[in-house]
Amino acid sequence: MKRKIKHTPLMVLGTSSGAGKTLITAAICRYLKRKGEKPIPFKGQNMSNNAWVDNQGREMAYSQALQAWSAGLEPSAEMNPVLLKPKGDCTSEVIHLGKSVGTCKAINYYEDWFNSGWEAIKKGLKILVNREKEGRLILEGAGSPVEVNLQHKDLTNFKLAKFLNANCILVADIERGGVFAQIIGTIALMQPEEKRLIKGIIINRFRGDKALFETGITWIEKETGIPVLGILPWLKEIFPPEDSLDLLERKQIKNSAEIEIAIIKLPRISNFSDLDPFFSESSVQIRWVELGEEIGKPDVLIIPGSKQTIKDLERLNKTGMSNQIKDYAKNGGNIFGICGGLQMLGKSLEDPYKKESINELSQFSYMGISLLPIQTTFGIIKHTSQREDVARWPEQNNVQGFEMHYGESHLINQKDSDIISLFEKSSLGWVIEKKDKSFIGGTYLHGIFDNDEWRRQWINKIRQKKGLKKLNLKEEENNKNKRERLLDLLTDYFEKNINIDKMI
Questions:
Q1: N or C terminus: which one in the chain shows less Cβ crowding within 10 Å?
Q2: Is 441 helix (H, G, I), strand (E, B) or coil?
Q3: Does 152 qualify as catalytic in the annotation?
């Protein structure tokens, strides 16, 4: 396979997790695309509950989907052949080439899954290289490449870099402080054959006048013998996050906001990128609600997706949040659940195979919040597919997104309820619209809010109840165009401040 690679692969490593590898990799992809190349993003192993489903119904990390869009490619699971989805209690679901292959405990992962993970990585590489013969692999590492207790079993940093003989870039986050120690310490822990692969260093998230760091650059280059490719300034624009911490730490106060959306901060929240489109809405303010906090009086409450629905439901019950949600609904509150959030809103959750149960001694049946007349049964088959459908509510229009869940839900006592199907495919979601114009509903369709017209219609339902003027459906920049604009802006910053031409 190595002989088939026309261009030398580039790899982005970091001195730590959160150093900025994901966005820098995305920027490199678009930069090379601008230069006429065919960049191919690749991350051998990722750990994230923020996932995407490709057009073949296979799971991959959302961050690699973002990099694919930046490269002008359709996301595919081969770009992220090993995905670990944390379930809590040091346990993760293992995804190989887009399909679930089992569950592992952290302590046993390298013993039980290393060899099969490496085979999945090699297979993913082979498919990509054969598909894009003129392309260049742009690899993203994971965490730090020099975790001495894990290095011998590290699937996605130097093992992969050496396998492909990649030119590596080391990214250090100056915002964290101690940038000199980050760089020197990381390089000092590398083996000689690893250090020779490092061809450049990037200083990320710099605030202030870069001229003040010129002596720092000189010192780093003298001490390491590795050129500093540039300093990337702190970016004020908001970009899609790779993990929940990044999202939950985003603070965006909108003076023009007329609608407040409160979102329950579930312990095992997943697919939080579902909520990104609201950051494009100038009239919408997001507020996160910790378990045990007062919900207050938001205009709408969202219960997001969960990697472990039953466990998170139990946490809602124990903290009194379930009762708060019921009281909020009783007082005319609007509520919307996404995937696991939809399941929680139902009357019961059945788990005959114990896919979601708390432990081996757990019961098989659980009471939901009981705001929707639906029952969910967790089976052994995971539903993963892209979907196109016709929405029936708030108004009729075409929508698209993807499913990614184990449970199947169906209506109970339908004749005694005002509940209606959200879509022509009835099992994708339901809603009850009350006489006071409030609603309680939910959907299995991830990415539903990416549909700009549907999102605006949904917001207008809330505005109508509040006595506000309806928004023009095409008034603001659509979410896809905004994503493209931000990726272009990121690349402009990168091109202006970083010189990687000598490496390509």
A1: N
A2: strand
A3: no
Contact call for residues 64 and 34 (beta carbons, < 8 A): no
Highest mean pLDDT among 137-151, 187-201, 228-242: 187-201
Left, alpha or beta for 413 (phi > 0: left; psi -120 to 50: alpha)?
Answer: left
C-beta separation of 416 from 431 below 8 A: no
* 3-state SS class at 448: helix
| pTM assigned to the model | 0.90
Q: State how far the Cα of 95 lies from the Cα of 46, in Å rounded to an integer.
A: 10
Rounded to whole angstroms, how far apart are CA atoms 284 and 281? 5
Identified catalytic residue from 104, 339, 383, 410: 339
List Cα–Cα distances, 48 to 83, 92, 146, 307, in angstroms: 7, 10, 21, 10
| Tokens found for residue 477 | 């920049």
Angle at alpha carbon of residue 148, lines to 142 and 154, rounded to 5°: 40
Which distant-in-sequence residues (6+ apart) come within 8 Å of 86 by Cβ? 47, 49, 92, 268, 307
Cα gap 19→193, rounded to integer Å = 23
Longest dimension (CA), the chain: 77
HSE (side-chain half, CA atoms, 13 Å) at 372: 31
Burial class (CB in 10 A: 0-12, 13-18, 19+), 309: buried
- Report d(CA 74, CA 88) in Å as an integer: 31
Q: Give the other-Cβ count within 10 Å of 503's Cβ.
A: 15
Distance of CA 225 to the CA centre of its chain: 36
Q: Is 396 exposed, middle or buried (0-12, 13-18, 19+ CB in 10 A)?
A: exposed
The answer to whether 175 touches 207, Cβ cutoff 8 Å, is: yes
Can 383 be counted among the known catalytic residues?
A: no
Q: Which of 96, 104, 405, 446 is catalytic?
A: 446
Asked whether residue 236 carries a pLDDT value surpassing 70, the answer given is: no
Domains and CATH numbers, the chain: 9-234 (3.40.50.300), 244-478 (3.40.50.880)
- Which value, in Å, is the radius of gyration of the alpha carbons in the chain? 24
Backbone angles phi, psi at 222, to 5 degrees: -70, -45
